[in-house]
Amino acid sequence: MDRSTYSRSRRMAPIVAVAAAAALTLAGCSSSSGGKKSTEDSSGASAGKASTPRMTVALVTHQAPGDTFWDIVRKGAQAAAAKDNIKLVYSADPNAGNQSNLVQNAIDQKVDGIAVTLAKPDALKDVIAKAKTANIPVVGLNSGLSDWKKLGLLEFFGQDETVAGEALGKRLNSEGAKKAVCVIQEQGNIGLTQRCAGVKKTFTGTTEVLNVNGTDMPSVKSTITAKLTQDKAIDYVVTLGAPFAMTAVQSLADAGSKAKVATFDLNSTLTGAIKKGTVQFAVDQQPYLQGYLAVDSLWLYKNNGNYSGGGEQPVLTGPAFVDKTNVDAVAKYAANGTR
User: Fold this and answer.
1) In angstroms, rounded to a whole number, what is the distance separating the alpha carbons of residues 117 and 158?
2) Which of 47, 111, 169, 305 is the most buried (most CB within 10 A)?
3) Which domains does the chain have, with CATH numbers?
């Protein structure tokens, strides 16, 4: 997994797809959300299944209990595992120390590869080094774009959260917004912090950050409601996840606010809200694709020696805006759990 062993002559422009287009139609199993867990996933899909030896891959994320965003990531990972004859072991915990322990568990189980999120990269640095010593390839997804190379990961699949935030800030300018509140549901999560910082960088109006407890949705609702009640000048609430956008819509009603809601990330409920106009737009990072490519990349590396981006560049899966102009085209995929 040590990129120093890779041939430097193979450096090239990022490869933004991993020969997976046809396989993306494979359906993965449904999954449940939750914190601290470890389960083996399997899928009934068999068409086009690889005949290569059975592999075991651990997918370890910082999913918080009830955060359905990760169901989409996991579904993509399951589809790749079904195609590649992989036993997928999923585990998650929002506590960085516990997540590190889950990675250690995967090392102890002598898995063939690890896919991990780096919401709090410093807490995972040592255990990733242990995986490297054990010759277990590790790829990153979703969180950690600014840290994956220095931690020695093979590849990374996700979006540049700062760039995504900057794009949303520019969009607020075009919408004529003057004052926005950016709602962070998990303090210390570097990706969420980067999103709000990106918004503040390009938005010409005023940006305030509001920290909430994302694991307690009634508290999220009351905190946003109190902020909107106290400051009537807020004309946009920016949330960093689809469930929080829907809660913000409720807070607007409770506070009697005329503000609008925009969000990062997407799900089937959110597409319906965009159609109705209760949410103006979403920034989609394609979590299904992140899960799919992360797992598939480990199969490609083990069996073919392939890796994307020459070991130097990330594979970007976003950002892309979804609004009333294109939501109908996206909604059918969101309903299937693939967007």
Assistant:
1) 10
2) 169
3) 3-159+286-319 (3.40.50.2300), 161-284 (3.40.50.2300)
